[in-house]
Amino acid sequence: MSNTEYSQDNAVIEELLSSVERPGNYCALGRLFAAMPVVSVDGVSATEAEAAMERLRKAYATS
Fold it and tell me: I need a labelling partner for 27 at 20 to 30 A (CA). Which of 10, 17, 45, 48 fits?
């Protein structure tokens, strides 16, 4: 593991990632749009969920 200062709080994830023995697909520039999983939360209506999604769409559009 590296001795850099930023890695001190990330020792667990750094150890896990260092165990990967094969290359993967990486996105180094630009945006990668991926489908999000469907989540159902007890006590949250479809109307509330749609309102939250609209707020996210507006926030994403301004970023």
Answer: 10
pLDDT value at residue 59: 92
Question: In whole angstroms, what is the distance from residue 63 CA to residue 59 CA?
Answer: 7
* pLDDT, tens digit, 9 for 90 and up, residues 5-59: 555 677 787 777 777 776 666 656 777 777 878 778 888 888 898 899 899 999 9
Q: Alpha-carbon torsion 41, 45, 50, 56, what sign?
A: negative
Report d(CA 48, CA 40) in Å as an integer: 12
Q: CA 41, CA 45: separation in Å to the nearest integer?
A: 8
Report domain extents, the chain.
35-63
